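#struct-help
A.M.: can someone run this one for me? Single chain, 220 residues.
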Amino acid sequence: MNGAYVARMEEVLDLYAAPPDPARPVICLDELPLPLRDHVRPPLPPAPGTPAREDYEYKRCGTAALAMAFDPHRGWRHVWVGERRTKEDFAGWVQELVDVHYPHADLIQLVTDNLNTHGPGAFYEAFPAAEARRLAQKIAWHYTPKHGSWLNMVEIELSVLSDQCLDRRLPDLATVAAEVAAWEAERNAAHATIDWRFTTEDARTKLHRLYPFGEPANPQ
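D.P.: on it. Structure tokens below:
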């Protein structure tokens, strides 16, 4: 098991370390469930010397499904907001990446986890065979290892989204979509990105216990 883990880990880390190639952009993709909640009683607005207040009780309004694509080299991200996250939804997100956001790319290097909806088979369940094959030929798959979601840079962006935008009561999909779109536009305008510094060499030194034969500690 460790051998498969480190092989996938090093593949992703080497991908991150490679120079940017606009013809072969690196796109990290992952999903996030979001519970929808509303106030039972109207919150009290702020007043001089008193912050805004809300009752601890809330009303459950179902759930939303969010998915984010993140390009660390461009400092660009896009978030989809919907009711579900099926194979058909995943196929639609990737089709949008290929045809709308990266129409001139030769190949999209897609970093994702091993969820059963993530793979070329999703294209064949969502589209006719010719379209599914076209999309499959535009994607190079890079899977993070099981229990290795920390290797997907979009996890960090999803955490930023949660902290800056979603950490409050949002009652419906329309509200979530509007708030997320405003957050996305602001982050993209700033070209905000992630300063990823963990390399394959770091992994062999700091995570040497994961390697079946072990790796010597860095003498430096």
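A.M.: thanks! Strands lie at 26-39, 58-71, 76-82, 108-112, 139-143.
D.P.: also worth noting: The CA atoms of residues 40 and 58 lie 5 Å apart.
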